[in-house]
Amino acid sequence: MTDVLSDEEISEQLPDGWDRDGDEIVRTYEFDSYLDGIGFASGAAGLAEEAWHHPEMTITWGEVEVRLTTHDAGGLTAKDMDLAARFNEIYD
Ligand SMILES: C[C@H](O)[C@H](O)[C@H]1CNC2=NC(N)=NC(=O)C2=N1
């Protein structure tokens, strides 16, 4: 079982562009087109499957909002931070 992170650990480990929202971390990625957002979401889905750790993604025109939490642990864990950082890598 992955341990739930403390408030201090969460603050320290938040990847660039991500914010904490209760037991979730969230980032809204911006794109020049809807299809660019779809492409990003597809790539993120592949990373999620690889990690067997799945975000909530809301796709709208020019934006993809991504939310992560560890359901099995009932809070935020290293799995969330690691996957968020990997999402940043395919965005930049
Ligand atoms: C059985 C359990 O739901 C699975 O092992 C995985 C699936 N994907 C998951 N995704 C997220 N975000 N949290 C989980 O706890 C989780 N668990």
Automatic annotation (TrEMBL):
<comment type="similarity">
    <text>Belongs to the pterin-4-alpha-carbinolamine dehydratase family.</text>
</comment>
<dbReference type="GO" id="GO:0006729">
    <property type="term" value="P:tetrahydrobiopterin biosynthetic process"/>
</dbReference>
<protein>
    <recommendedName>
        <fullName>Putative pterin-4-alpha-carbinolamine dehydratase</fullName>
        <ecNumber>4.2.1.96</ecNumber>
    </recommendedName>
</protein>
<dbReference type="GO" id="GO:0008124">
    <property type="term" value="F:4-alpha-hydroxytetrahydrobiopterin dehydratase activity"/>
</dbReference>
<dbReference type="InterPro" id="IPR036428">
    <property type="entry name" value="PCD_sf"/>
</dbReference>
<dbReference type="InterPro" id="IPR001533">
    <property type="entry name" value="Pterin_deHydtase"/>
</dbReference>
<dbReference type="Pfam" id="PF01329">
    <property type="entry name" value="Pterin_4a"/>
</dbReference>
<keyword id="KW-0456">Lyase</keyword>
<feature type="compositionally biased region" description="Acidic residues">
    <location>
        <begin position="1"/>
        <end position="11"/>
    </location>
</feature>
<feature type="region of interest" description="Disordered">
    <location>
        <begin position="1"/>
        <end position="21"/>
    </location>
</feature>
